[in-house]
């Protein structure tokens, strides 16, 4: 059996935790929407976070959270089993994130709040750094070899 790189194990565990968090958000969105709104605002420093988007979903919000439970759970399971499509999907998502980061400064320029722009800029820099590190890791020879070896075993 191929050995799973430690970083992939960490990504898998984080993915399962993310799915559990989305499940909690789904329950909270149905049971106590005011508490959900307070939580989302709390994790959105200076308005630079998910609060505005999530709270604008209305009745679709629990459906979105349930869909994200499925998506993040499936990705976590894929990491755990070293399914190569998971690695490729993550690289595509990193690319989409980087496109969003490239567009964000133009959106920030239209908003008037300096404080929210500063918080958003910190989030953007952190997002680019994390995306670059994870992308570099997923493209490393050791990780590619582990996924290749797992694919050969599963055939």
Domain count: the total is: 1
Beta strand count: 0
Strand percent estimate: under 5%
**How many H/I helical runs?**
7
Structural account:
The protein is an all-alpha fold and 155 residues long. The protein has one domain (6-154). Helices cover 82% and strands 0% of the residues. It has helices at residues 6-31, 33-42, 51-55, 61-80, 84-110, 114-138, 141-154. Helix 4 (61-80) crosses helix 5 and helix 5 packs antiparallel against helix 6 (114-138). It is globular. The two termini are 12 Å apart. The model has no long low-confidence stretch (mean pLDDT 87).
Secondary-structure blueprint:
Layout: H1 6-31, H2 33-42, H3 51-55, H4 61-80, H5 84-110, H6 114-138, H7 141-154
Helix pairs in contact: 1-2, 1-4, 4-5, 5-6
Question: What labels describe this entry?
Answer:
mainly alpha; 82% helix; 155 residues
Offer a quick outline of the entry.
By secondary structure, the protein is mostly helical. It contains seven helices and no strands.
């Amino acid at each position: 059996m191929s050995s799973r790189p430690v970083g992939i194990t960490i990504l898998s565990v984080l993915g399962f935790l993310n799915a559990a968090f989305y499940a909690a958000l789904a329950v909270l969105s149905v049971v106590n929407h005011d508490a959900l709104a307070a939580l989302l605002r709390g994790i959105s420093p200076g308005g630079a976070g998910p609060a505005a988007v999530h709270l604008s979903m209305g009745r679709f919000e629990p459906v979105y959270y349930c869909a994200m439970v499925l998506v993040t759970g499936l990705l976590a399971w894929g990491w755990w089993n070293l399914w190569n499509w998971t690695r490729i999907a993550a690289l595509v998502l990193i690319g989409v994130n980087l496109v969003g980061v490239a567009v964000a400064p133009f959106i920030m320029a239209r908003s008037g709040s300096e404080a929210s722009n500063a918080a958003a800029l910190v989030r953007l820099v952190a997002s680019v750094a994390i995306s670059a590190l994870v992308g570099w890791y997923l493209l490393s020879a050791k990780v590619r070899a582990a996924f290749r070896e797992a694919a050969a075993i599963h055939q």
